# Entry
Amino acid sequence: MAKNGIDLRNLEDNIRRLDSQIEDINNQMEKMISVNLTLQSKITELMIKQIDLIENLKKMVDLLEEAGQEEEEKTDFITPLKETMETLVSKQDEILTALQTIDKHITREYTREMLTKALK
# Structure
């Protein structure tokens, strides 16, 4: 009987520890969901800002082209600047594409539904 009593106490202690560990895991999962959602939001904000920046750079390139056409003697100065600006626009497009890829990956891998199922 005493042995069974000790075994039951050990079992109860183990169950309490397991419940505590499960609660800790659930709390960590909730934090992970929150951080993931914040990350997705920030990536989206960054993509919007990248799009705005690309549009502004394109406008700047257009202005430089107009200025170059009006003053042909300054074309030698503007051409390298224009090429640099076009390179910047191209790099911004690449960054935007990479951010969109990351966002799609995060959205696919860590959907709220999947994480909620993991908590259950």
Remarks:
- The chain has one domain: 2-119.
- The chain is about 95% helix and 0% strand.
